[in-house]
Amino acid sequence: MDKNKHVQAIVVGAGGGGGVAAKVLATAGMQTVLFERGGWPSYDAHINDELISQRMQVLDSAFGPAWDKHPRVHVRENGERDIITAANGNYNHVAACVGSGTVSYGAMAWRFMREDFRLKTTYGAVEGSTLDDWPITYDDLEPYYSQAEWEIGVSGDDGNPFAAPRERPYPMPAFEYNRDGEYLAGVCRRMGLHPFSIPMLRNSVAYNGRAACIRNRTCCGYACPVDAKNGTQNTVIPVAMATGLCEVRTHCVVAELLVNDAGLVSGVRYFDKDGKEQVQTADVVVVSGSATETARLLLNSRSPLHPAGLGNNRDCVGRNLQGHAYTGASGLFDWDILDLSGPGATMAICDYNHHNPGIVGGGLLANEFYMLPYAFSQSRPWGEPRWGKAHKDYQRNNYRRLGRMIGPIQEMPMWDARVTVDPQVKDYWGIPVVALSGAKHPRDFEHCRFLSSKAEEILKEAGAVRTWRHTGDRPPSSFYGPSGGQHQAGTCRMGHDPATSVVNEWCKVHDVDNLFIADGSVLVTNGGFNPVLTIMALAYRTSEYIVNHYR
User: Fold this and answer.
1) What is the rounded distance in angstroms from the CA atom of residue 485 to the CA atom of residue 493?
2) Buried b / exposed e along 348-383 (16+ C-beta atoms within 10 A)
3) Is residue 391 part of a domain?
4) Distance between CA atoms of 397 and 336, rounded to whole angstroms?
5) Number of structural domains in the chain
6) Tens of pLDDT along 217-236?
């Protein structure tokens, strides 16, 4: 094995959290190596072609990981174990490229609400759940939300009356409503609701030397053709590299965190782009691999002082895996409600986000991103033909006539919803893979039913001639399997008590003084919102702490 020159900091994973961490550490003068298992993304390599995208999702993933090198295991309720790949819906896929999901995300830029940091205090204990309060408050995170909004770039306004207060306005004006957003906003106001423009990590005007959004309808799930969508790959990581102190090593797979005789992390063992095993040492390590991959890395990093894996002496690593159950309703209109001015989602309401009788937690409703034709062919009322002339007529007649109100609900954390590592299945490099197990809490389904009924009420009031909910009388099959998905969170949760958490309020692993985590795994609860801005804000806060205490 080769040994590289010692550095002050290593960051594992170049996504929303890792990109921010690398920028803060490098600009503070710390020599940093940023590891990424994928490569640099480009629009030309990931063009906005739905058929190519769908084909790649079956044979491979458009932004990685390669299906044949990164298997996972799904543990069924009866204990049977299925080997799955990125082509499977229950893989809990996250992108493998510089920027990770921030390259292809829808770019909604939500701050969590005050209640999201105090769910147990607000609602009380929930039987069968590990629901808890965060060790920090909204006010602790507010300045870092602002830092993320200004340095990475968010468009928005103060139109959400339910939002927690902010010290600084958004750096860019909000996006205008598209046709369905404008119409549904008027309907919501007529119903006494409070619509507003969705905050977006997207340039509504030219910002920081990059172009304004061109309202491309092939946005969510794709790279931006004019580089107007703001991810870490085109904002903070280039800033980190410009210091001369941050080296980005792509196509490198980190297999293990190395530990010295004092129980501290001394560096990482990894496989480089040529498949050669190497070691990189550092004073401080920040892991930002995602809720699934970060837990896997810690569990695979075993030593005499940490026999069950780093941070796992109390069996907490990998527990409390959460995602978002998406719900809502669709409605067909007898006129063209869509103008296809992208990205589609422009208007939201938060009237049902908290304080609904019998419901724990929150969830927003928005007019949602546009579906391209292939996806549209799979979204229709029960009983509609899915082949032949009737199918083609439905596609032709209704593509612009489908209105939607969709949103995520805040799932209840569960002790047995978890990530472990499989003792037998290994990836291309011989590393034990993620094994996913557990299911969603029954309260989540009740929450989905509630929010979908509210969405259907709006569409009926809007004049839809036919409506259907996305959560019916019985839970869909996804409720009986592991949670996670693109908004995966919770496997290394924050907390004051090492018996029930993995990291402290600064996201430092309890038992390892120089190991930090900067991704969604530290979230105690996942909010009723897309979590990326919260992940970025936490990464700013954690990295600032590292600079102040370890430089």
Assistant:
1) 17
2) bbbbbbbebeebbbbbbbbbbbbbbeeebbeebeee
3) no
4) 10
5) 1
6) 888 888 999 999 999 999 99
Does any domain span residue 366?
no
* pLDDT tens-place string over residues 393-407: 999 999 999 999 999
CATH (domain of 522): 3.50.50.60
Burial pattern 182-210, b for ≥16 Cβ within 10 A else e, equals ebbbebbeeeebebbbbbbbbbbeebeeb
d(CA 89, CA 192): 38
| Assessment of whether the complete model's pTM goes beyond 0.70 | yes
Give the C-alpha separation, 360 to 353, whole Å.
Answer: 10
Q: Are strands 2-3 and 277-287 parallel, antiparallel or unpaired?
A: parallel
Q: pLDDT (tens digit, 9 = 90+) per residue, 84-95? A: 987 776 788 889
Helical H segments across 106-207, by residue range: 119-123, 138-148, 179-190
Distance CA 393, CA 104 (A): 31
% helix / strand / coil in the chain, to the nearest 5? 25, 20, 50
DSSP state of 149: I
Tell me the pLDDT band of 390, cut-offs 50, 70 and 90.
Answer: very high
What does the alpha-carbon distance between residue 514 and residue 543 come to, in Å, rounded to a whole number? 12
For residue 210, what are the β-bridge partners?
207
Question: How far is Cα of residue 48 from the mean position of the Cα atoms in its chain?
Answer: 21
CA 195-358-320 angle, 5° bins: 90
Structural tokens at position 288: 């930002």
Residue 386 lies inside a defined structural domain of this protein: no
Write out the residue range of the structural domain in which residue 501 sits: 1-103+231-315+418-437+488-551
Q: How far is CA 479 from CA 266, 443, 456, in A?
A: 41, 11, 21
* 160-214 pLDDT, tens digit each: 999 999 999 999 999 999 999 999 999 999 999 999 999 999 999 999 999 999 9
What whole-number percentage of the chain has pLDDT above 90?
Answer: 82
User: Which residues fall within 8 angstroms of residue 365, CB to CB, at 6 or more apart?
Assistant: 328, 348, 349, 352, 405, 406, 407, 451, 454, 455, 458
